[in-house]
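Translate structure to sequence.
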């Protein structure tokens, strides 16, 4: 389908979503380049992503043959594209995700000639690999071409195409070039020539294409792509079933009728994200999805989300479990599910806006919770080892890997981290004079608000410390607002001051808005209350029954064996009902790249005797135990969950038994 309309916004917005002008949108992100991160753990993660992870993923895509598969498909490399194919049938998607990540990085560092050359080379490979009919997938070549579109449930053709489209949109928004965007449009035209009303029914068993089509509509100005996305979403639960009719594929009933989060966690969260995008872009046509999206968010948030923000309790099917089924050691919590959770919360926030009854504060808190815990845990401090699965307890055997046979998680993490500044700030179509701070981090932001440019420099060590200093670098003539988060975890409101004089802000849906005629040089300051918070779970979460987790600000902490020589952390408990008393935060610059730890006191039970029976009568002495040994007091050191498994292997616990 060629471009037939002028893009809604003439200037590309370097961000993963561009809802400007969408009838259902309230907020629009401040793009890469206008928003930057300059210090703190988020900036460090992004710099590690730039200098190590992007290079690592590209090298491994070369080593595992994923890029060579595409070269053979395009005739750029000798060999048989079937006999010489390497890796999984969805290996193309890893290349596409790397390319998207690289493009978001280029949006901020266009002077990086080496990265630009690598991006250009991969774009040229994709151009060559595309067939004359627009089809592009290196697995279904040669004799396998006859299998194209014959197994939508299992073979991921649209899923791979969705990541191709998202890479193309990122390339266009980062560079202004349309080369890869043209490839994406030809692919979408091919898909729509096969599927659609009066043609074949069906949708991919792994969603993702739907969100990509919405962004293609926004990038090209052609609304038909969004209409196609809605058609594909509505194929789920069709009669007769289009992709098997199983809950695993979200095909058990129409999405508009779904109220319970089920099935493969990543696929489900991708589908809900696509539905949210459609409610933003086509609020009238997609209106039937609105109650479902809200109910599904509530089910996920209230009954099926880990304290780290992870999603997906079961290894079997990489799936959600029943309500409150949130085992700690057997948690799956795939890194891709954390990426999808973050994306869904962000897109819901862009749609609902602030003060519109959409729970903006809760959505912002969800972004922060999963980002600082279950998402950034997916990448090691070396930038080149990754978690696929993120348990909340471990016996010492779970470690990050350099790569996977199914390698979806590393490039998925990389593309989100590369775009982090674009998630940090937003402007409002209803309240255009206000800049919303969505993620607290040290950096700078320049945004166009009503009346002119508002530019801020943010200084903070958050989340290690609670102090925040916001200097106004430039401001419009008229009144405008700076909206700062008021997190749900804070036990007291932040007392804000301008140039040292206290000011009363307006509390709006999880934010505090400071409105005035700002002058360059004015400084807003405040301190978030980062007290240690013991956290308990719903009583029906069996794995956490009688247990406490430790949190401080948005961070969840854990005990690692490396900090507790002489006692197995699985034998450690904390005093029940003790609250935060006795815990103190300590900055350790030499530990794990520099981190805050929590220091306190716990109790260690005696190690079981070597010949202790598996079961015994309550109160009976263990075999070989001569006398009852009392619990011993031990010093405890808890580290942020996102940093675990970066030292020697050993047991780890998030939920600590109470005694």
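Result:
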């Amino acid at each position: 389908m060629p471009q037939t309309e002028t893009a809604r916004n003439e200037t590309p917005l370097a961000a993963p979503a561009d809802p400007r002008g969408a009838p259902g949108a309230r907020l629009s992100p401040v793009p890469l380049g206008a928003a930057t991160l300059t210090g703190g753990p988020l900036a460090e993660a992004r710099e590690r992503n730039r200098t190590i992870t992007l290079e690592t993923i590209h090298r491994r895509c070369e080593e595992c043959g994923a890029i060579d598969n595409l070269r053979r498909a395009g005739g750029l490399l000798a060999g048989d594209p079937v006999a010489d194919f390497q890796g999984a049938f969805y290996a193309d998607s890893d290349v596409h995700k790397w390319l998207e990540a690289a493009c978001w990085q280029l949006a901020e560092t266009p002077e990086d000639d080496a990265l630009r050359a690598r991006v250009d080379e991969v774009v040229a490979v994709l151009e060559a690999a595309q067939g004359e009919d627009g089809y592009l997938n290196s697995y279904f070549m040669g004799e396998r071409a006859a299998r194209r579109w014959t197994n939508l449930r299992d073979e991921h053709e649209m899923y791979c195409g969705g990541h191709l489209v998202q890479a193309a949109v990122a390339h266009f928004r980062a560079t202004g070039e349309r080369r890869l965007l043209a490839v994406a449009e030809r692919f979408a035209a091919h898909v729509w020539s096969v599927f659609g009303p009066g043609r074949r029914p069906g949708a991919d068993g792994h969603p993702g294409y739907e969100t990509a089509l919405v962004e293609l509509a926004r990038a090209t100005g052609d609304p038909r792509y969004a209409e196609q996305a809605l058609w594909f979403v509505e194929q789920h639960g069709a009669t007769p079933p289009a992709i098997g009719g199983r809950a695993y594929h979200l095909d058990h009933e129409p999405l508009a009728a779904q109220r319970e989060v089920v099935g493969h966690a990543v696929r489900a969260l991708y589908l809900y994200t696509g539905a949210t995008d459609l409610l933003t872009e086509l609020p009238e046509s997609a209106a039937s999805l609105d109650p479902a999206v809200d109910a599904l968010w509530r089910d996920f948030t209230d009954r099926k989300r880990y304290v780290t923000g992870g999603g997906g309790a079961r290894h079997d099917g990489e799936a959600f479990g029943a309500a409150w089924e949130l085992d700690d050691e057997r948690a799956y919590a795939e890194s891709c599910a954390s990426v999808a959770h973050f994306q869904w919360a962000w897109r819901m926030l862009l749609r609902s806006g602030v003060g519109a009854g959409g729970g903006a504060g809760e959505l912002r808190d969800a972004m922060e919770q999963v980002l600082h815990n279950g998402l950034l845990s997916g990448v090691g401090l070396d930038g080149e080892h990754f978690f696929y699965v993120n348990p909340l307890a471990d016996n010492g055997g779970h470690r990050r890997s350099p790569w996977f046979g199914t390698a979806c998680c590393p490039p998925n993490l990389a593309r989100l981290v590369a775009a982090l500044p674009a998630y940090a700030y937003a402007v409002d179509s209803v309240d255009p004079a206000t800049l919303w701070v969505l993620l607290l981090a040290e950096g700078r932001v320049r945004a166009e608000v009503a009346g002119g440019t508002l530019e801020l420099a943010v200084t903070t060590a958050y989340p290690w410390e609670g102090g925040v200093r916001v200097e106004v670098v430039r401001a419009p003539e008229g009144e405008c607002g700076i909206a700062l988060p008021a997190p749900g975890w804070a036990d007291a409101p932040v007392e804000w001051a301008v140039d040292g004089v206290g000011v009363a802000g307006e509390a709006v849906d999880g934010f505090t808005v400071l409105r005035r005629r700002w002058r360059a040089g004015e400084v807003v300051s405040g301190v978030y209350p980062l007290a240690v918070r013991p956290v308990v779970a719903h009583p029906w979460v069996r794995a956490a029954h009688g247990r406490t987790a430790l949190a401080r600000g948005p961070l969840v902490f854990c005990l690692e064996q490396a900090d507790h020589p002489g006692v197995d952390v699985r034998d450690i408990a904390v005093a029940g009902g003790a609250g935060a008393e006795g815990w103190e935060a300590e900055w350790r610059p030499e530990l794990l790249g520099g981190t805050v730890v929590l220091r306190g006191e716990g109790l260690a039970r005696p190690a079981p005797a070597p010949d202790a029976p598996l079961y015994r009568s309550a109160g009976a002495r263990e075999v070989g135990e001569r006398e009852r040994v009392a619990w011993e007091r031990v010093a405890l050191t808890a580290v942020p969950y996102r940093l675990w498994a970066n030292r020697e292997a050993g047991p780890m616990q998030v939920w600590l038994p109470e005694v």
